[in-house]
Amino acid sequence: MSNFSRQIRFSSSVIRGLQYRISRSFTTIEGHRPTIVHKQGLDILHDPWFNKGTAFSMTERDRLELRGLLPPNVMSNEQQIERFMADLKRLEVNARDGPSDTNSLAKWRILNRLHDRNETMYYKVLIAKIEEYAPIVYTPTVGLVCQKYSGLFRRPRGMYFSAADRGEMMSMVYNWPADQVDMIVVTDGSRILGLGDLGVQGIGISIGKLDLYVAAAGINPQRVLPIMIDVGTNNEALLKDPLYLGLQQHRLDGEEYIAVIDEFMEAVFTRWPHVIVQFEDFQSKWAFKLLQRYRNSYRMFNDDVQGTAGVAIAGLLGAVRAQGKPMIDFPKQKIVVAGAGSAGIGVLNAARKTMARMLGNNELAYESAGSQFWVVDAKGLVTEERADIDNDAKPFARKTKEIGRQGLREGASLAEVVREVKPDVLLGLSAVGGLFSKEVLEALRGSTSTRPAIFAMSNPTTNAECTPEEAFSILGDNIIFASGSPFTDVDLGNGHIGHCNQGNNMYLFPGIGLGTLLSGSRIVSDGMLQAAAECLAAYMTEEEVLKGIIYPSISSIRDITKQVAAAVIREAIEEDLIEGYREMDARELCKLNKDEMLCYVEDNMWNPDYPTLIYKKD
Ligand SMILES: NC(=O)c1ccc[n+]([C@@H]2O[C@H](COP(=O)([O-])OP(=O)(O)OC[C@H]3O[C@@H](n4cnc5c(N)ncnc54)[C@H](O)[C@@H]3O)[C@@H](O)[C@H]2O)c1
Ligand SMILES: O=C(O)C[C@H](O)C(=O)O
Ligand SMILES: [Mg+2]
User: Fold this and answer.
1) Distances, alpha carbon 441 to alpha carbons 240, 419, 467, 617, in Å
2) Which of 9, 108, 255, 570 is 20 to 30 A from residue 330's alpha carbon, by CA?
3) What is the reported pTM?
4) Residue 140 Cβ < 6 Å to ligand 1
5) Which atom of ligand 1 is the closest one to the Cα of 340?
6) Is the beta carbon of 505 within 6 A of some atom in ligand 1?
7) Alpha helices in 72-224 (DSSP H)
């Protein structure tokens, strides 16, 4: 071949290459042409053609009204695939959540998929089999779900407000498609069950609690909204994890933190003035402060502080009755509480007030009731000698002289305290699994009670202060046992069964929320919470409590919730707090007798029945 023809060939191949590159680059440009969509918000996220999940950029999120509908961390496509693969591989490992159910996570996935495609059917299953599936959608499995949420996240559910959304919340709240929202459960992820700071992954607890609102209280699932306020996390592992879905920064604190929560509250109450906001699993440091800040101006309550307190009071009264004594003997009970966080202090305050009421409801009664409690936290027995004592724990600090006489001192260990005090009740809200060790339980053998009670209330299962087997085997069958997460009854091998009660705020929060909604009460008052607790206590018959059954079976949770809601409404009427609900105005509501009130509540509970659908053009 001549040089000339070689040159021609060379240049024609160069030209072909160029042509190819040019045409490819046209195709590339073509590929980047925007796609016109006729949808926005959740409709896009639910459409497999357009959905990019966590990969929607911030500008696209704003353009498509998606802000707040996705976790705040924008992921690349590669990261999305990595996250998906990591989760897929995890299936090969048998996901364990304590000894009871090795398949719990797999069951959660199956239920979650049903939730995504057919809500009515999902809730029908949940209501019909609540005893079987509450431990999956709620504690303990929900704890595992939160821990693994970055992998499990598929279709978003609920809203995310993040520190990066400051100044935007008032508008982004309109990205939620429902014009009516009755119930919000909000967390900042800082103390999820006893599992600590799980950051944005804490959204799982808001979803689980709202599942119970639908199943137990019959709140319409179209009107519930789980919310996560992401102000960062102090969980170092999450901060380092490239696949973490939340803001990768340390938690905001002080005024900056409050400003975010204030903005959030203002935004949700502006759009839905009648909504009820349940605060869930906020670290104790903020739980009390936020409750005080908002409780007189918004319809809100803190479940860990107030719901737990009510459930504990009902159980403590049950434990008195189980000893064959009248409830009025409650102020004589000696109670050791392990844990002085939001839950422990909430229980202590409510128990002290209940005792004081029984003793005459005056200052003296309140003072004297205080001497029935011994509080042990991470540093041991809390006394007035404690340096930097928390303000909330201060009223329960024992006097140095007094405990000296009891052979105790500041910082005494739990076992020492139990040995010296010989309490009627040992109640754990410490989040420390196994805290009621052999030594502690053996010390409880010296209890002066005819039937000591053990409340191992920390969640999930692995954080319970002891198991029922441990309690019954060391203390025999003449005890009362309750735990926050479900355990099965124990066969004591002597023809007796050791009954395991589930002492969990799930028995109250749905009824508190429903009662507040249906009364249109402006706030959630102490009296309404007290009425809820008393209603739960009265739910148990004499025969049941004598058998050691102090809480009802979860299979009757819908009925319990109905009764609790009616009691809450009656108290709200008594306190002149009601504004009515829909066509039931305040005056009409006041006229209802006890049975009519129960009917009113029941009539307003949503049932999972398919409605007849009719098509109508816009
Ligand atoms: N059963 C229920 O309905 C229910 C309701 C609310 C909370 N809880 C559980 O209660 C637990 C605590 O919640 P919180 O918000 O109060 O948490 P928190 O972290 O604020 O409080 C924990 C408390 O336990 C104390 N503590 C830690 N180690 C201890 C030890 N070795 N001995 C004695 N005390 C110790 C800490 O000092 C602190 O006072 C969690 O596990 C949560 O799941 C259960
Ligand atoms: O979530 C629960 O199961 C109860 C309680 O609210 C908790 O924080 O442990
Ligand atoms: Mg909680």
Assistant:
1) 40, 10, 11, 68
2) 570
3) 0.92
4) no
5) 39
6) yes
7) 77-90, 104-117, 119-128, 130-137, 141-147, 149-152, 169-172, 203-217
